[in-house]
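anyone seen this seq b4? input:
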Amino acid sequence: MKKIFYNRKSLSLTLITFLFFSLAAACGGRAAEPADSQGSTAASGEPASGIDEVSDNEEVVLNVNVTAEPTSFDPNAGIGDTLMFTNGHLYEAVTRLDDNDNPVPGMALDWTVSDDGLTYEFTIRGDNGWSNGAKATAADFEYGIKRILSHQIGENWAFLVFDIKNAAAAFSGDVPLDEVGIKADGNKLTITLEHPEAYFPRLLTFAPYFGVNQEFVESTNGRYGTEAALTISSGPYYVDSWEHDNLIVLRKNPYYWNKDNIKIDKINIYVIGDENTAINLFQTGELDIIDFSGEKKNIVEANGGNVQTYQNGRSVYLQANLRNAVSGNKKIRQAISSAIDRELFVTGVLKDASSPAEGLVAGGIASGVPSRTFRDLTGKTLVYDYDPDRAQALFGEGLAELGITAADIELRLISRNSEPYMKATAALQEMLQNTFGIKINAESLESTSYTATRSDMNYDFCLVSWGADWDDPTTFLYEGVLGDYVNPQYADSSAYLKALHDAETIRDPLERAESLADAERAILEDTPLIPIWSEARFYAVADKVRGTHRRAIVPYLDIVKAEIVK
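predicted toks r here
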């Protein structure tokens, strides 16, 4: 067994994402009662200003915003971008990510890996506590996984833990839970996998693998995570209060093992859906960190904002409905992919920090090779990039196979009704109609309607934005291709499946990356998915705030090392 040790004093606590998790007043006691809030909240819900000067005796406060209300503070159940943006503040996972986005110990002091790569044994630290004072233990992680597999909660996340031995079989009821390959014994947590996974320590930073306290969860009578007082935290912060659709207040967890090195005492998280409002509050000093679109870049810069960019690990692509005749024709799909000028799309339509897609895997995702992202290592794997002559030739071949003319084609293209996807949909409609002389009905739908339409396969092409859940290409090549809302035909690509399967057993990171690139090329040759752009975001941080970290995966914003200077 290969033993991996880390110096506890040099740990870089980075896996703090940006959300909110709470305490337990009604059902198990609060953390040590926090001091009164420094800044009050106006009746309008806008943050009060007045935190520019920080003395040694003042509470250090950070003001930020999210664009939507979270669904739940339960890591095994919650889903959506807001939770992906914030969960890491509130739970201490087995591993967390350092400043170079490499997995380092969180709740684990060290771990061993068996020679065959199947069994991980973690030594869980004994000095971390839940925000109600309960001790955080190895058993919390076993309970969290088995809670999902026993259909108590989080069935949306279940497939993400199926790499654990017998997890899928237990979820389907074929084997009992005690045969699942996760066991807690004192301060030891042993996890046995179905097959080797080079990225498994990274996967442990994702919410389905977060531990939860069994006694507290069961005391909430099925309401865990629905209110601040019905949630507790094992991470650096807990939720002190939650005014729905308005404000979430986080405070330092007094039982967190590294609390003395957390410099921000309190985080005010305002729910602000309007971009202009957020920018105005940043310019008046009432918000300290904001994300914003390319259209607002000049405004922020003109008012002295230090505009920066980060890759947010999100790939945007067209998903074809393979059940319909036209969108199910490979030549037509390849023609459409070849007709999209991705460079012009980014510069002329999006006008933001995004980049033209080079493949399905977004920029910024790790390859497993130190200091090299997957895109750095593999380059462009997009088989049918922009080539108008090839587009016309392939389109003609597709029409001949279908026995129709361009005038016979009428396609439905759907997207969400939010920026930049509405602009992108309109641009795609114009681009493809002008190139091929076909009719495209473009519709931008509100979230509920979009989800239902996509699930019912009531479209020809759907504009999809897929964000990375963990820092590995498989979050796109497995989850993005074969996850929710997919066509069964995706699995018909034998070359794709073989390359993906081969990668599961390859231990050398360079060889594994090459095999995953082969899988990516295979799926892009079949073109059920047509990548268009890899997202990146503009953001600005107040001058007084130092030590924040942005990354392409959870946590997108990491403030565990942040501080406010005088």
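The first strand starts at residue 2 and ends at 4. The radius of gyration is 24 Å. kinda curious what u guys think
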